[in-house]
Write a structure and sequence with these properties.
Layout (H helix, E strand, L loop, with lengths): L9 H13 L2 E3 L9 E3 L7 H25 L23 E4 L17 H4 L8 E6 L5 E7 L1 E2 L6 E2 L8 H14 L11 H15 L11 H33 L6 H21 L1
Parallel strand pairs: 2-3
Antiparallel strand pairs: 1-5, 3-4, 4-5, 6-7
Length: about 280
């Protein structure tokens, strides 16, 4: 029996974000798409981070072996598949380094540039390169984001990839679930709110930075919330304009305006009674 996929858990989301970003990248070999640690610069690759990368890889190997055994129907425990990180060779590690070295400049994109990103072409997610040690203990670039072709003879590109179908389904499911919340489901323009939220996720969905967080669910939920609130505020502003025009022409405004007026009048009477 096939396992039911929970589209809204962080583990599955992170996996699909990784697959989606990989479509915008080029690697010397497909297995180098997976990384063992994320670092802000090459200088951070040292004894401590190498040991941390080994521990991460050992944990991942143990988890993969455990899940494979469990899927085959065996009754197993995770501890049975524990891997000693000291058995992992340094040359087997892949380091993801967040960097803009391979991204072309775009002078004038921002009036007052403050960061390296402000001087570069605008991207759909933070750029990076993958590195590993060769047999001579030298760091070699084995992958680049926003890239097509070889590491030396390839070229920059930011349009050739796409989000996976499964990640898109996660976005749709998240928006649908959010739209059933009690504080938003009663609005007549709920479809407009959902459409705005889906558009926002399509624009910023891959901007999630795994080097800063492992909780994409919270990131996406915040984006959806902001989209819903933006539409609600816009509709309320338009409704206030319509009601003002109706009142100026001696017509009855919307029930919302009438109820608000009655509520404010009741509050004033209560205040007058207290002060009296």
């Amino acid at each position: 029996m096939a396992r039911k996929v929970n589209y809204l858990n962080n583990k599955d989301m992170l996996a699909e974000i990784h697959k989606s970003k990989a479509t915008f990248c080029s690697y010397v070999s497909p297995e180098y798409a997976d990384y063992d640690i994320i670092l802000p610069e090459i200088a951070k690759i040292n004894i401590r981070t190498i040991a941390e990368a080994k521990r991460n890889k050992a944990k991942k190997q143990g988890q993969t072996a455990y899940e494979a055994a469990k899927a085959s129907g065996k009754k197993v425990k995770l501890a049975e598949f524990e891997v000693d990180y000291r058995t992992i060779e340094k040359t087997d590690l892949v380091f993801r380094v967040m960097m803009f070295d391979h991204i072309p400049d775009e002078p004038g994109r921002k009036k007052n540039p403050k960061t390296v990103a402000d001087h570069k072409t605008k991207l759909n997610f933070p750029p990076f390169q993958h590195f590993k040690f060769d047999e001579n203990d030298n760091l070699v670039c084995i992958g680049k984001s926003h890239w097509i072709g070889g590491m030396e003879n390839g070229h920059f590109s930011k349009e050739h990839g796409k989000a996976t179908n499964k990640l898109a389904m996660m976005w749709l499911k998240l928006v649908d679930r959010y739209s059933t919340r009690g504080n938003v489901r009663g609005y007549t323009y709920k479809d407009e709110m959902k459409g705005q939220a889906i558009l926002q996720l399509a624009q910023i969905g891959l901007q999630f930075d795994e080097s800063k967080s492992n909780n994409p669910f919270a990131y996406y939920t915040a984006a959806v919330t902001n989209s819903f609130v933006r539409v609600i505020n816009l509709e309320k502003r338009n409704q206030n304009i319509r009601d003002d025009i109706l009142e100026m022409n001696d017509y009855s405004p919307s029930y919302t305006r009438l109820h608000q007026g009655e509520w404010e009048a009741a509050l004033r009477r209560q205040e007058e009674q207290k002060s009296g």
